[in-house]
Amino acid sequence: MPARSAVGQLPDEIRDELNRRLVENRFGSYAILADWLRGLGYQISKSALHRHGSALEADFDQALADVRRTRALAKACKDDGDEGDVLSATSSILQEQLLRISIALRQADTDPQEAARSISVVARAHADVGRMQVTLQKWQESMREKAAVAADAVEKVARHGGLTADSVDLIRREILGITS
Question: Where are the alpha helices (DSSP H) in the chain?
Fold first, then answer.
C-alpha cells in the first residue's frame, strides 16, 4: 500500500477547511495555504498542496459538469413534458457518481476501516437508487395503462359524437403520446 499523502494525514476538520480555502481561492495561493498550515503546526509543502488541489479541482470540475448536465437534461425533459425520463436520467447519473465515489474510496488516503464503512454507505445508496428505478418503472407502466384506458374512453365518446376515424385516431395518438 502506498504511503499516505501529507494532506491525507490531516485531521478531517483541517482538511475540510483546506478544501474550502482551495475552492475559495480558485485552487491557487498554495504558499499562503502552506503558511496557514504551518501556523497550525503542520509541515506540508506547496507541492503536496498543489497535488491535492489539482485532484480536488478535477473532482470539483467533474461535479460541476454533472450538475450542468443534469440541469440541461431536466430542462429538456421539462420542455418535452416527460418527467419520467428526467428521473431515469438522474438515476443513471447518480449510479455513475456512486461508482466514481467507490473507486475513489478504494484509492483514497484513508484508514481501511473508514474506507470500508464509506463503501458500505455508497453500496446502500446504490441500492436505494436501484429501488428508485424499479419504482419509477412501475409508475411509468401505470401511467401508460391509465393513458390507454383514457384513450379508449375518449375514442368511444368521440365515435358516438360523430368524429371521423382520422380525428379519433389523432386524439388517441395525442393521449398515448403523453407517456410513450
Answer: 12-24, 30-39, 46-80, 83-107, 112-160, 165-177
pLDDT tens for 94-120 read: 777 777 776 666 666 566 677 667 767
User: Mean pLDDT for the chain?
Assistant: 79
10 Å CB burial of residue 144 (0-12, 13-18, 19+) is: middle
Cell of 134: 424499479
Q: What is the pLDDT of residue 180?
A: 43
Which H helix or E strand runs over 135? Answer: helix 112-160
- Higher-pLDDT residue of 147, 48: 48
Distance in angstroms (rounded) separating the CA atoms of residues 43 and 66: 35
Of 102, 100, 98, 94, the C-alpha closest to 132 is: 94
- Spell out the domain ranges in the chain: 1-58
Q: How many CB atoms lie within 10 A of CB 163?
A: 16
User: How far from 102 is each of 95, 143, 151, CA to CA, in Å?
Assistant: 11, 35, 46
Distance (Å, whole) CA 177 – CA 165: 18
Q: How far apart are CA 130 and CA 92, in angstroms?
A: 10
